[in-house]
Each structure stands twice: as C-alpha cells, then as structure tokens.
UniProtKB/TrEMBL annotation:
SMART domains linked: AAA
Stated name of the protein: ABC transporter ATP-binding protein
GO molecular function: ATP binding; ATP hydrolysis activity; L-isoleucine transmembrane transporter activity; L-phenylalanine transmembrane transporter activity; L-valine transmembrane transporter activity
Transmembrane segments: none
C-alpha cells in the first residue's frame, strides 16, 4: 500500500490560492522533493502534510488511514516524523541526552519512574547516533558541535520516533556543500534500509537532483511537473518557471569544496 497519499489538497489565504488540487504520493523508501520558485506553495503543502496547516479541501492518507485533520502530535504517533530548517536540539545537553529525551517522550507510557533520566535509553540513543555517524559525539554538548553534526543529531532524534514518513524542511539550509551531500547520502541510505518515505523541500538544486528519487514542481500553488530528476531537468515548463536562473537546473557537478 502507498505510504503517503495526498489528494486534491487546496488552501487559500484571503485571495491567494497557495495550493490548488495538489495530488501526489510517497512510497516506502522513496525520497520525494518538492521544489518551486519562492511563493510557489511548497511550505503550504508541506505544512498540510505535517498538520501545522488545515487544508480547505482534499485529503491526506498515511498507510491508507485518513489523517487530514489530525493534529501534528497525533500524526507523529501514526508515524510522521519531522526535521526543521533550523536545528532544534537543546544546546546545553549532549548529543546522547538529546536523543534520550526523544526516546523518553516516545516511550513515556512504558517507563517506570525509578531510573534516573540520564540513564534511560542511553544505549539505544548511542545506537541511533552510531547510525548517523555520531556515536563518538555522544557526550559532547550540542553547543560544541559543528552545525552539520547538529543536523545529524537532529536526524537521530527524528529516527527515535521510528517514523514511517519523514518530513524534512530545507534539510541542508545553512550547511557547506560537502556537508549537504553527506547528510543527504546518509538520509537516503537510512530511508532505503528502514523503508522510510522522505518528503523534503529544498532550494539547493544539487541536493534535489543528486538525492531525490522523484521531484514535484509547484508553481503558483499547482503541480506543473512530477518525475525523476532527469525528466524534471528536461521539462520545458519547469525550465520556464525557473527562467532568470538559467543555472538552477544544471546537472550537479559532484561535491565541491566544503
Ligand atoms: N499564513 C499566510 N498568510 C497569508 N498568505 C500566506 C500565508 N502563508 C503563505 N501565504 C502565501 O501563499 C503563497 C505560497 O506560500 P508558501 O510559503 O507556501 O510558498 P513557498 O513555495 O514555500 O515559498 P518560499 O520558497 O519563499 O518559502 C504565497 O503567495 C504566500 O505569500
């Protein structure tokens, strides 16, 4: 069964139609990018899937179950995880404690109260950090980590909730080019091995064309194209939408200097 199915989503703000008849799906293990010029409606669609915005019309289904009007917390329990544009870790806590907090909040009902918080889920947290290449940073405060490493810790935090679908809002914003490629390679490997569907918005075309399995292009709230990175790069309507930025759709040249 399709993991995420979005049908006919519609959202207006006053007179502005931010999303119009938006229909798409995400399969398990698939990386789907939503792109489009500024104001195209990417955040609007993304937030309707995450539950931060209520659609005027249409439906959102996860694993066949309707979640169109479910609050973000309920979606989270159903398997929708999310990372944000700006990393959301607690700077004063170390990497392991940040992941432990996420694990404690995910498993809160099955916990006894006698174990000190510092020990709860420590092993599982370090295991998750190892999966994102950060096991050695377990005891380092997040405030002392490089930004790219904080984003990896954030990925481990998102994985603590065992998501079926991971929403990533501009996952590589603020990162150096090599760090971007590394984070997205890691995300793709984890998505494939755990069969997690990943829906992400992204302005960096190297990231999109280098890491998405499929790309959706929005323009003025409507999907104008959907396909593989190569199909999208060749699409005349998409090229016109990006007119004025003629390099935006060029083939990535591989990782540049960090
Ligand atoms: N809360 C809001 N109130 C009024 N208008 C809004 C609101 N949110 C979005 N819009 C409008 O809806 C349209 C789509 O906005 P949206 O933020 O979804 O685009 P976007 O593709 O994410 O843009 P960007 O790349 O600049 O982040 C824009 O015209 C925007 O001004």
């Amino acid at each position: 069964m399709t993991l995420l199915f979005v049908k006919d989503l519609q959202k207006s703000f006053g007179g502005v139609v931010a999303a119009r008849s938006v229909t798409f799906s995400v399969e398990r293990g698939e990386m789907l990018a939503i792109i489009g010029p500024n104001g195209a409606g990417k955040s609007t669609v993304f937030n309707m899937v995450g539950g931060q915005l209520r659609p005027d019309h249409g439906e959102v289904r996860l694993d066949g179950q309707e979640i169109t009007h479910a609050a973000p917390q309920k979606r989270f329990r159903r398997g929708v995880g999310r990372t944000f544009q700006v990393a959301q870790t607690f700077a004063s806590m170390n990497a392991a404690e940040n992941v432990q907090m996420a694990l404690i909040s995910c498993h809160r009902r099955s916990l006894g109260l006698w174990a000190p918080a510092r020990e709860r889920y420590r092993e599982k947290a370090v295991e998750l950090l190892a999966q994102v290449g950060m096991a050695e940073a377990a005891d380092i405060p997040c405030s002392a980590l490089a930004y790219g490493d904080v984003k990896r810790v954030e990925l481990a935090i998102a994985l603590a909730g065992e998501p079926k679908l991971l929403l990533m809002d501009e996952p590589t914003a603020g990162m150096a080019p090599r760090e971007r490629a590394d984070l997205m390679d890691l995300t793709a490997t984890i998505a494939a091995s755990r069969r997690i569907g990943v829906l992400f918005t992204e302005h960096d075309m190297d990231v999109v064309f280098g890491h998405a399995d499929r790309v959706l292009v929005l323009l003025r709230g409507q999907i104008i194209a959907a396909g593989t990175p190569d199909e999208i790069r060749r699409d005349a309507q998409v090229r016109r939408a990006y007119l004025g930025d003629e390099h935006a759709l060029e083939r990535p040249k591989g990782p540049g200097p960090a």
